[in-house]
Each structure stands twice: as structure tokens, then as C-alpha cells.
Write a structure and sequence with these properties.
With 123 residues, the chain is mainly beta. It contains no helices and eleven strands. Strands 2, 4, 5, 6, 9, 10 and 11 form a seven-stranded mixed sheet that branches. The N and C termini lie far apart (40 Å).
Length: 123
Amino acid sequence: QVQPVESGGGLVQAGGSLRLSCTASGRTFSGYAMSWFRQAPGEEREFVAGISWSGGSEYYADSVKGRFTISRDNAKNTVCLQMNSLKPEDTAIYYCAAKLGSITIYPGNYIYWGQGTQVTVSS
């Protein structure tokens, strides 16, 4: 079983940057597509960014395209989300998730989830 563990959240001013990390507890992430989702209070969980198991394909939500970058290092069993030019509307709990096969934007397709890390962007 793959158990993602997120870190790196916090409080930042608008325009600032944060880097989220996701490491694996248990089995390796190798072979799994990895994605970041987020959920704001009262909102549904939404896709943010995803990366294929090889790292060769990336996909971003329109709301973060050009500001966020997802990356992975399979040797270190780590997936990262670099978030720049943060906006107050980026405030949410961010989750790391894993699935076999290709990237999808639907949370229900992901089988392993971390506990989440809070990101708060002040105006």
C-alpha cells in the first residue's frame, strides 16, 4: 500500500511562493501517476496538477497554469508542487494522491490519498 505524506504548507502573503512535498510511506510511488488536489471550505475537492509515473507528462488546472509546477523524483520517492504568484483564492487544504495508469482530474479515480497540508494565502 502506498501512503502519501504531504508537507510544506503554511501561511504566505499574496504574490509569495510555497513548495509542497509528498513522500511515500510504504511502497514506492514508481508506476503511479501522482496528482495534487485541493479543497477549500465548503467547496468540492478539485484537481490542481498531475504528473505521469515517468515524469514525461504533466497536466494543470487552468487556474494554476503558469504559476504552479509539479515534479517528481522517483529515486527519492518524492513529488513536489512549486507554487508561485500565490493568490488568496489558492487557500485550501492540498492533498497528494496516487493512481495506477494515466493522469485524470477526477478524485474518485485515485486510490491513495495523503492527509493534506493547509495552504493559506493572505491578501
